[in-house]
Specification:
The complex is a heterodimer of chains A (265) and B (388). Chain A is mainly α and 265 residues long. Helices cover 71% and strands 0% of the residues of chain A. Chain A has one domain: MetI-like (MetI-like fold), CATH 1.10.3720. Chain A is globular and about 70 Å long. By secondary structure, chain B is of the alpha+beta class. Chain B is built from ten helices and 20 strands. Chain B has helices at 2-15, 57-65, 107-117, 122-135, 151-163, 181-198, 209-215, 233-238, 243-248, 378-383; strands spanning 19-28, 31-41, 46-50, 72-77, 80-81, 92-95, 169-173, 201-206, 218-223, 226-231, 253-261, 266-270, 273-277, 292-297, 303-305, 315-327, 330-337, 340-347, 360-365, 371-373. The chains are: A mainly alpha (265), B alpha+beta (388). The A-B interface holds A 157, 159-160, 162-170, 173, 177-178, 181-182 and B 65, 67, 86-88, 92-94, 96, 98, 100-104, 113-114, 117-118, 161-162, 165. The complex binds adenosine-5'-triphosphate (ATP) and magnesium ion.
């Protein structure tokens, strides 16, 4: 690593401390005994955590967010893996075009995508269903899935699959036995990262919820408009902890280097 | 009746594994990397593809394996057209140039993978895996990870992995290149042995002409996507059809020359003097007066004699001894003939009155042994790192 100048070092430290500051404030406020969101807290109590765990609306929102995140990450990772595998093996020339399509969600404001998504889902007649939310989450998360999966697949010697085929394996069998295990860390990265994004997504999801279904971050957003109760601080702390655990898991099983590698060739 | 039946069974075993390559070309975009290749490989043949880097050896193996399809022409295995037949349905095994070992499997798991796909019973699988791991000299290393192996050990795992399935055709892309001399010799013998025992058709790629002449029934010399010559190793050595082939197989003395007269004998002008060769010396081209050409002589076809000597029927050239190297039973004499460096090789005990370095001498050869070729074209010369 190159040595940094004192100025950039100081700036770096300030940023590193400043970035998680709001989280510390929410964390502190969640243990506040009074009825308002306050920092630093006046008295300490766990009453907001008790409320968060006993109010069924919160439990349901957490549950919904978790399973939507799980389904989204599995589906989007499967799609990315197959797309990356087949373009690399059979149509390497269209990769640039495909990446452009896959990365295009990054170029649009999420509010704009929300409007587009609600129009699309209305046409399909699925606004207010989990299907609509999952479909939107797939579109939002696919760039974050395609990149690590593509990087992992591209580094696999293409002769490995041919070697398996010479020995009699079908392409699917070779994928399962050889390619999948070798790409394990790229796939886990994709699963966890897309899961985290889906779990935290607000803007697009807001357009698609209905009376039957809402996700945790959207629930927080709606709730705060009526009532700035410290229960929100407790809920936020819980969701930060869930996300944090997922990131720790990600770092443990796969490392985070995939996000600093370039995926273009 | 029984005998005929038995006979026909063994006949059938003998005929599986033949490959017919008919007018096959392969292009990538505008570049043709294989041009009109014709080869008939009989079942059970040990055939070696020999040629400089980039001449299309791997491409030919990939076509036979079915990873790529020919742009033109047809490949048939056992008389059956392979067009559109997927790799899995071809009776082949392959050792890849870059080995393609499965990095997440152990040595034994790599060797066992194909058997597992064939649903071989566990006990038999274990036994065969062990047998082939032993055969390639990796006994006791079955549990090693691939990353823990040396280059040579990896090559041997790749060999074991393809041999264990006993395919009727085995494609081997430089399978011994990373091995040291002794192990290489050992495995050459082992390969030849297995090949003869199982009557497998081997299509073997190597850069090493010595290896090629040692283990093959048939050698195919290739350059620039063309087949230059096909034949038994000794035939190719004895009667190469082009300068390229004679340079590629065995050691060679070349004398740049110009044709001064074509009939009935060839009159040749060289820096070492003028002499005549029989018309049959010209190979692969019809010399005309004024043509540039190259006279080729094998080192063992040259005799080194004292200056006064004159042998009837032999062509004599004035030369100078540069140095002498005795390698056990053989002696190599470096010579300067005119402006050309040459090598003569003889049995050490036949070299009764060795001339000291620096002394003048005569070099003689039988004109019937000399070959006259057209000079190499530029692209072929580049294969030898020469500039025409
Ligand atoms: N997929 C491809 N696209 C374009 N050109 C290719 C492709 N594969 C091979 N070639 C070209 O075809 C030629 C022959 O390649 P090939 O790999 O068959 O050579 P080789 O004889 O096996 O060489 P080496 O001894 O170095 O392994 C080379 O010039 C190579 O650049
Ligand atoms: Mg090659």
């Amino acid at each position: 690593m190159r040595t940094m100048s004192p100025l950039s070092r100081t700036l770096g430290i300030v940023f590193l401390l400043a970035l998680p500051l709001p989280i510390f404030i929410v964390f502190g406020a969640s243990f506040n005994g009074s009825a308002y969101i306050q920092f630093p807290p006046e008295s300490y109590s766990l009453r907001w955590y008790i409320e968060a765990f006993t109010d069924p609306r919160w439990a349901r929102a957490v549950g919904t967010s978790l399973w939507i995140a799980a389904v989204t990450s599995v589906v989007v990772t499967t799609i990315s893996f197959l797309a990356a595998y087949f373009t690399l093996r059979y149509a390497p020339k269209i990769n640039t075009l495909l990446e452009l399509a896959i990365f295009s969600p990054l170029f649009f404001p999420h509010a704009c995508m929300g409007v587009a998504a609600v129009a699309l889902m209305a046409k399909l007649g699925i606004v207010g269903t989990p299907g609509a939310i999952i479909l939107a989450h797939i579109i939002v998360t696919v760039p974050f899935s395609y990149r690590p999966v593509h990087v992992a697949l591209r580094s696999v010697d293409p002769d490995l699959i041919r070697a398996a085929e010479v020995m009699g394996a079908s392409e699917l069998r070779a994928l399962k036995d050889i390619i999948l295990p070798i790409c394990r860390s790229g796939i886990l990265t994709s699963l966890l990262f897309t899961g985290i994004i889906s779990f935290d997504e607000v803007t697009v999801t807001m357009f698609l919820i209905g009376p039957e279904i809402t996700t945790l971050p959207v629930q927080i957003f709606t709730f705060i408009q009526d009532d700035a109760s410290p229960v929100l601080a407790a809920i936020s702390t819980i969701s930060v902890i869930i996300t944090f655990l997922a990131i720790v898991l990600l770092e443990r099983v796969a490392g985070l280097t995939f996000f600093v590698q370039r995926s273009g060739s | 009746m029984t005998t005929t039946l038995n006979q026909s069974v063994s006949d059938v075993q003998n005929v599986t594994g033949s490959i017919d390559i008919a007018s096959v070309s392969k292009s990538y975009g505008d570049t043709e990397v294989l041009s009109n290749v014709n080869l008939n490989i009989p079942a059970g043949n040990f055939l070696t593809l020999l040629g400089p880097s980039g001449c299309g050896k791997t491409t030919l193996l990939r076509l036979i394996a079915g990873f790529i399809e020919p742009s033109k022409g047809k490949i048939a295995i056992d008389g059956r057209d392979m067009n559109g037949v997927p790799t899995q349905k071809r009776p082949i095994g392959m050792v890849f140039q870059n080995l393609a070992l499965f990095p997440h499997f152990s040595v034994a798991e790599n060797v066992a993978y194909g058997l597992k796909l064939r649903k071989t019973p566990a006990a038999e699988m274990q036994q065969r895996v062990d047998r082939f791991i032993d055969l390639v000299g990796l006994s006791g290393m079955g549990d090693r990870r691939i990353a823990q192996l040396s280059g040579g050990q990896k090559q041997r795992v790749a060999l074991a992995r393809s041999l264990v399935l006993e395919p009727s055709i085995l494609l081997l892309d430089e399978p011994l290149s990373a091995l040291d001399m002794q192990l290489r010799k050992q495995l050459q013998i082992a390969l030849k042995d297995i090949q003869q025992k199982l009557k497998t058709t081997f299509v073997f790629v190597t850069h090493d002409q010595e290896e090629a002449t040692m283990i093959s029934d048939t050698v195919v010399v290739m350059s620039n996507g063309h087949v230059q010559q096909v034949g038994a190793p000794q035939d190719i050595y004895a009667s190469p059809e082009t300068l390229f082939v004679s340079k590629f197989i065995g050691e060679l003395n070349e004398i740049p020359a110009r044709v001064t007269d074509t009939g009935p004998h060839l009159s040749i002008d060289t820096a070492a003097g003028q002499f005549t060769l029989p018309a049959s010396a010209a190979r692969g081209f019809a010399p005309r007066t004024g043509d540039a050409a190259v006279i080729c002589l094998r080192p063992e076809q040259l005799k080194v004699l004292p200056t006064g000597a004159n042998v009837a029927g032999q062509t004599m050239l004035d030369a100078r001894v540069v140095s002498r190297l005795v390698i056990g039973p053989l002696t190599r004499v470096s010579l300067r003939v005119g402006e050309t460096d040459m090598i003569a090789v003889m049995m050490t005990d036949a070299d009764t009155a060795p001339l000291p370095s620096g002394s003048a001498c005569k070099v003689s050869f039988n004109p019937d042994h000399a070959r006259l070729f057209a000079p190499l074209s530029d692209d072929m010369a580049s294969a030898f790192g020469e500039h025409a």
